[in-house]
Amino acid sequence: MREDHIRNFCIIAHIDHGKSTLADRMMELTHTVEKREMKSQLLDSMDLEREKGITIKLAPVRMQYKGYDLNLIDTPGHVDFSYEVSRSLQACEGAVLVVDASQGIQAQTLANVYLALEQDLTIIPVLNKVDLPAADVSRVSKEVINLLGCDESDIIKISAKTGENVEQVLEAIIERIPEPIGASDRPTRALIFDSYYDDYRGVILYVRVVDGKLAKNDQIRMMATGANGIALEIGHLSPGMMPDPELTTGEIGYIVTNLKTTRDAKVGDTVTLKRYFE
């Protein structure tokens, strides 16, 4: 995919402000997941997440919309997971800020907005649950304007539950969030923003390719730990694993490695090619 047709973004929201519901609607609208396969909080894969209605793990998903690749990194909204939020922000150029129109901006949302502003991300403000009787759209709009210094017209008013105006959010992501900056002719660099151990497949890395490209069966090296490995499989999540021959500059995806422990591939480390060190 050409870099100017890639948009990498995350959703910032306080717990229970409708972040996972908005992600569900986006996946439905972009036909990433067919309606019959849809279940609520699709990106929340852990039983605990679905039972409590909170997001704990990061989950990247690629959606196709009007010829663009939209890479969403789902982030936790709970106060205890600010580290997870900060590392997913590093892999994005933009953030959708979701605020509950009946509750307004919460302290944890403020903290995450400041993290996003530090990373110089483009922020798209979204008021959710505007269909509720308790919604106070004008008051909460003023809070958002005071926080971001944006115009009233920049705020998108939606109901993630009914799907009202969710398409406007997708349009805003394409129009407002800049394309990823990177050089395909530079040596390969990819940021690890999450990693986990799979009993059957070994260590799996979630990466954002900053420069160059990574292909299947490439000999890879972790810059910080010095560990060497092989990219046994490379691909993207939609939301299940979809293998690709390679990941190119600006893309977000996964690498299945032959590493035995996540200690070899720490979050925040850079993946590059082993041949540069030979």
Characterise this structure.
The chain is an alpha+beta fold. The protein has two domains: 174 residues, 3-Layer(aba) Sandwich (Rossmann fold); 89 residues, Translation factors (Elongation Factor Tu (Ef-tu), domain 3). The protein is built from six helices and 15 strands. Strands 2-3-1-4-5-6 form a six-stranded mixed beta sheet, sandwiched between helices. Strand 7 and strand 8 form a beta hairpin. Helix 3 packs parallel to helix 4. The longest helix is centred in the middle third of the chain and has 12 residues. The two termini are 30 Å apart. 43% of the residues are buried. About 6% of the residues have low confidence.
State the gist of this model.
This protein has 278 residues and is of the alpha+beta class.
Give the C-alpha Rg: 19 Å
- Report strand order across the widest sheet: 2-3-1-4-5-6
Largest sheet: 6 strands, mixed
Question: What structural category characterises the helix and strand content?
Answer: alpha+beta
Return residue spans where pLDDT drops below 50 for at least 5 consecutive residues.
41-57
CATH topology of the largest domain: Rossmann fold
The CATH architecture of the largest domain would be 3-Layer(aba) Sandwich
Shape assignment: elongated
Percent in strands: 25-35%
The chain-level mean pLDDT equals 84
Strand and helix map with partners:
Layout: E1 6-13, H1 19-29, H2 47-52, E2 59-65, E3 68-74, H3 82-89, E4 94-100, H4 107-118, E5 122-128, H5 137-148, E6 156-157, H6 166-176, E7 189-198, E8 202-211, E9 214-215, E10 219-222, E11 228-237, E12 241-244, E13 246-247, E14 252-257, E15 270-273
Parallel strand pairs: 1-3, 1-4, 4-5, 5-6
Antiparallel strand pairs: 2-3, 7-8, 7-15, 8-14, 9-13, 10-11, 10-15, 11-12, 11-14
Helix pairs in contact: 3-4
